[in-house]
Write a structure and sequence with these properties.
The chain has 258 residues and is an all-alpha fold. Helices cover 73% and strands 0% of the residues.
């Protein structure tokens, strides 16, 4: 009998916001946030200036906290609290499906983040990454490989359809010992002055390679080459000189053909 009266007294008791929060195992800040978003009614202040909460507020707060902890958006909790059992079950099913979609998206993000350790593989297809790794194995500097990586990204954006053909051409070039030698020679010239006398024989060597291979780069490839050349004054002189010589040869050919 005594325990029954004690329980009744506790149910009928009024609580401060601190005791309300403790009873529902949340923070006072959380209670105030639920007031602000309209989930939990905020009682008027009593004569002493305090807001007093009833046992019903404790029950409501526990229900709100339970739904929020389960991942239910706050914007949907109010409707769920008032829903009939069939409506509640349907809404929970919808929320569960949305949570699963979020889980799937997060799993995809985790996979992509994991790929960051591979560097190039996040931005480029495997066959291009293989080309970059092959350049590393030949002794090309990491600085040049990074520039090549950015150039491949640019080429993919400008002309994705030509990527496969360019990969095959690049591998064919690296198969040629003479071409591999020139790659390494150009790589070493990165920090040279554009007036360094060592550039002249290198340019002649590269020009002879261009003639042998009858290179006719497309607009996208030329843009990529200019992007790489911008990083080094010596490389810029190489590209400018080779372009000028190619234009002179084309002009002579046109004059002879007319």
């Amino acid at each position: 009998m005594l325990s029954t009266r004690f329980a009744a007294a506790r149910v009928g008791a009024v609580l401060t916001i601190g005791r309300l929060a403790a009873a529902a195992d949340v923070t006072v800040r959380t209670v105030r946030h639920y007031h602000q978003v309209g989930l939990l009614p905020e009682p008027e202040r009593d004569a002493s200036g305090y807001r007093r909460y009833t046992a019903e507020a404790v029950v409501d707060l526990i229900r709100i906290r339970t739904l929020a902890d389960a991942g239910v958006p706050l914007s949907r909790i109010d409707a769920l609290l008032r829903a009939q059992p069939p409506e509640f079950a349907a809404a929970i099913s919808d929320i569960d499906a949305e949570l699963q979609r979020r889980i799937d998206r997060l799993a995809e993000y985790r996979d992509r983040i994991a790929q960051l350790t591979g560097g190039e593989s996040l931005f480029l297809p495997a066959e291009v990454v293989a080309v970059l790794d092959r350049m590393r194995s030949l002794g090309v500097s990491e600085q040049r490989v990074r520039l090549e990586r950015d150039a491949w990204i640019l080429l993919r954006a400008l002309d994705a359809d030509a990527l496969g053909q360019r990969v095959r051409a690049k591998n064919a070039e690296l198969d040629d010992p003479d071409t591999a030698r020139l790659y390494l020679a150009v790589d070493r010239s990165f920090d040279w002055s554009p007036h360094d006398p060592r550039l002249d024989p290198l340019i002649d060597d590269l020009d002879a390679w261009e003639i042998r291979h009858q290179r006719d780069a497309g607009r996208s490839t030329k843009l990529v080459a200019s992007r790489i050349a911008e990083s080094s004054p010596a490389w810029q002189r190489i590209v400018d000189t080779l372009t000028h010589r190619a234009e002179q040869r084309a002009a002579r050919h046109d004059a002879e053909s007319s």
